[in-house]
Design brief:
There is one protein chain. The chain has 120 residues and is α+β, with helices and mostly antiparallel strands. The protein is built from 5 helices and 4 strands. The chain has a 4-stranded antiparallel β-sheet with strand order 2-3-1-4. The longest helix is centred in the first third of the chain and has 18 residues, at 16-33. 12% of the residues are buried.
């Protein structure tokens, strides 16, 4: 399993509630609509809790400031992730265009990894 993890910061003009509403109600269905073209196996959104809930955990660890959310996407293989069809290119462009509407992309790191399940 190949997993993309995307740590999201919202654009400054969005409140946390507005960002989370757009992400789940607009962007989530958009991702679902192109999942076959992009061969996405699974998509999960992790919405951050209010800062007051997370701050004690971050302080103990000396962690940096919080993200507004984390998106995780799974593919069965690197070949599936690298699908290069006209449909996949159009789907990727559509998602990026929408992400620019609510995500502060330069401040939102992402990386690929191979999932290693320790227990389930």
């Amino acid at each position: 399993m190949i997993k993309l993890t995307f740590c999201l910061h919202r654009l400054p003009h969005f409140s946390r509630a507005e960002f989370q509403d757009y992400w789940i109600n607009r962007h989530g269905p958009l991702v679902a609509s192109v999942r076959q073209a992009l061969k996405i196996r699974r998509y999960v959104q992790m919405h951050s809790l209010p800062d007051a809930e997370a701050a004690p955990f971050a302080r103990v660890r000396g962690a940096p400031g919080p993200y507004d959310g984390v998106a995780q996407l799974w593919w069965d293989s690197l070949e599936d992730l690298a699908t290069d069809t006209p449909e996949a290119r159009a789907a990727g462009a559509l998602l990026l265009e929408d992400e620019r509407k609510f995500i502060d992309l330069p401040r939102s790191p992402l990386w690929l990894g191979e999932e290693k399940v320790i227990f389930s």
